[in-house]
Amino acid sequence: MPPDVSELVNELSLIASAVSKNEGAVLFRSGDPVSGIFIVRRGAVRLSLGIRSDLYPPRTLGPGEIAGLPATLTGHYSLTAEVVAPHTELGYVPGDRVSALLEGSPRLCFLAMRLISEEIARVRTALKETPSLHHS
Q1: Counting Cβ atoms within 10 Å, is residue 46 exposed (0-12), middle (13-18) or buried (19+)?
Q2: How many CB atoms lie within 10 A of CB 37?
Q3: Angle at the Cα of 20 (from 46 to 51), degrees rounded to 5?
Q4: Fewest C-beta in 10 Å: which of 45, 50, 107, 126?
Q5: Residue spans per domain, the chain
Q6: What secondary structure letter does DSSP report for 33?
Q7: What DSSP state is assigned to residue 31?
Q8: Burial of 59 (0-12, 13-18, 19+ CB in 10 A)
Q9: pTM of the entire structure?
Q10: From CA 110, how far away is CA 8, in angstroms rounded?
Q11: Which of 40, 39, 26 is nearest to 77 (CA)?
């Protein structure tokens, strides 16, 4: 994560509730109603499509990374987030509190959009590198 994005994580952490989860716990699944974001404080969370996919392989988030930010801003979870480390500590921020924080700070909103743009770029790269999806 880019260093300046830590400002966003720090501000979200200030309003987050502490949550502890064990390995195997599912934070959200693709298609679930959006509830909010999870900040990994200790342990790890894996983001995946919920099925085996070479197109978008699972990605593991560690301390200081956010799960669910794009979904919270767009209105739907498109990935599944599963805890993959024992005794994982998270911060949880409901979607309405995330929105209120971002609405009150153009800088934090910009940082959130930067994270989402980076995620979109990762997906686009995966699509370009998948020969069966190239269009003529």
Answers
A1: middle
A2: 27
A3: 25
A4: 107
A5: 3-133
A6: P
A7: T
A8: middle
A9: 0.84
A10: 10
A11: 26
Q: What is the pLDDT of residues 47-100, one digit of tens each?
A: 887 777 666 778 899 999 999 998 888 887 878 899 999 999 999 999 999 999
In angstroms, rounded to a whole number, what is the distance separating the alpha carbons of residues 78 and 85?
22
Rounded to whole angstroms, how far apart are CA atoms 17 and 92? 5
Question: 8-29: per-residue pLDDT in tens?
Answer: 999 999 999 999 999 999 999 8
- Give the H or E element holding residue 90: strand 88-94
Which CATH code for domain 3-133? 2.60.120.10
Q: Which two tokens stand for residue 74?
A: 């767009």
- As a whole number of angstroms, the distance between CA 47 and CA 68 comes to 9
Q: Give helix then strand counts, H and E, for the chain.
A: 4, 8
Cα 97–Cα 100–Cα 102 angle in degrees, nearest 5: 110
Q: How far apart are CA 71 and CA 32, in angstroms?
A: 10
